[in-house]
Amino acid sequence: MLTEAVPKQELQISSVAEAELTKQQYRVIGKYKHSAVKVCGWTKKMIKGEGGCYKLTFYGIMSNQCMQMTTSISCANRCTFCWRGYKAPVAKEWTWGVDDPVTILEDSLKQHQKLLSGMGGHPNMVKKAHEDSKTVKHVALSLTGEPITYPRINEIIGEFNKLGISTFLVTNAQYPEQIRDLNPVTQLYISLDAPNKKLLKEIDKPLFKDYWERLVKSLEYMAKKPQRTTIRLTAVMGENMVDPKEYADMIKKGDPDFIEVKGYMFVGASRQRLSINNMPLHEQVVEYAKQLEAVMPEYEIVVDHPTSRAVMLAKKKFKIDGVWHTWIDFPKYHELVLSGKPFTSMDYIKKTPKVGLSGQKTNMKNKEEREL
Question: What pLDDT, on a 0 to 100 scale, did the predictor assign at position 4?
Answer without folding.
Answer: 40
